[in-house]
Structure formats: structure tokens, C-alpha cells
Amino acid sequence: SDPPSPHSPSNGSSRTLSAREMYLFDTGGQYLDGTTDITRTVHWGEPTPLQKEAYTRVLMGNIDLARLVFPSDTAGGTVESFARRALWDVGLNYGHGTGHGIGNFLSVHEWPVGFQSNNVPLEAGMFTSIEPGYYLDGEFGIRIEDVALVVEAQTEEKPFLTFEVVSLVPYDRNLIDLSLMSPEQIRYLNSYYERIRAQLGPELRRQQLEEAHAWLQESTEP
């Protein structure tokens, strides 16, 4: 018989889920008008102080890179440390790349776009993931991954670039320590939540998904 799929539960390897731990959901799909690759980390119970701080610092790194304005023809490897700085500040880090190109109904990890030292310079129109994380072996893992489009920045001197995050999924409020975040980071978070509400709210209502709509409103409170 065929060996069990690593993506299917089995009596030997499965275990009971509980509300007392963190969960990392790496999700995505292929659609005719694009490819998604979105990771969210959640905790439905009472996170430890380390879990909350680590999550918040991963989120701060995600935001710092997403709102960065940089000259055109800048290589991704030149700016990827912005996603690590909030972690580095307290001696934390992660051991994987900060993001990869994403194809349009093509490869989820699409060369040659991304933040490694050997990727091509970033240009308007490219899609890349932004995905800092933090992992404590045997304890928990955190990753916050968004899909971002490289766009022209609204600067006096042209052409400068920035990112427009196109994944519209709230972050876990239970894990955010606002006292660690700067006013600019909190403003970014609020404008992101406004965009989620404006774009997804009417669609959930149209589909009569009232429970999902109520969850969205609660999850995107300023």
C-alpha cells in the first residue's frame, strides 16, 4: 500500500489540538487571476510574554519592510534586514529567507524575484512575499507572511519604490503588544485594517456570510 501522505493525519502522528498553544497556518491557492501564499500565526488562549513579544517583533519587521520607500533598482537583499531589525534589537532572528517571488497563476516560489543576495533588483509590477518569523525549537513557531506588489512610491524625486500588501487578512490581536510598536507602525496597521474592511466587508455581506463578517469587524477594530 502507499505510504501515508505527510499532509494527512494518521493515528501514529496526529495529536489533539488545544487552545493553549500557538498555531502557524501557511495557506495558499492557485487561481486563474493569481497565486496566494499567506501565513498567519494565532493563539486562542493565553500567550506567554515571550510568545507575545516575539510575535509583535515579527509583525513590526513585516510592517517595517512593507512600508519602506527605496530607490528603484535596489536589490531585495539590500533591504531585507528591515524585516529583522525589531528581532535583532533583542537578540532574536530567523533562519530562512525574508521573501520570494510569486508567479501569476504560476510558481508559488518564483525565481528570480525576492530578498536573497542573488535575486534581481526590485521593479514595479513584481510580486514578492514578505515573511519574517521566529522559531523556538520544540516550543512554538511564528511566521507572518503577506503577498506584496512592488509599486512606485509617491515621492518628489522619481522613481522610488515601495510595497502594496495585497493579502487582506487580519493579524492576531491576542498576540500584539502595542507598547512595543511605534506610532507609525500602529498607523500603518490601522490603515491596513481599514482597507480590509472596505474591500472584504461588502463581499462577505453579499455572500451572506454574517458570522465571517462579524469576525472581520471584530478583528479589524482600530
From TrEMBL:
Residues covered by the Peptidase M24 domain: 6-151
Keyword Protease belongs to the record: yes
Signal peptide stretch: none
Entry keyword Hydrolase: yes
Gene Ontology molecular function, alphabetical: aminopeptidase activity
Keywords for the protein's UniProt record, in alphabetical order: Aminopeptidase, Hydrolase, Protease
Peptidase M24 C-terminal domain location: 159-222
Source species, domain of life: Eukaryota
Record-linked SUPFAM superfamilies: Creatinase/aminopeptidase
Family of this protein: Belongs to the peptidase M24B family.
Protein's name according to its UniProt entry: XPP2 aminopeptidase
Source organism of the structure: Cettia cetti
Organism phylogeny: Eukaryota, Metazoa, Chordata, Craniata, Vertebrata
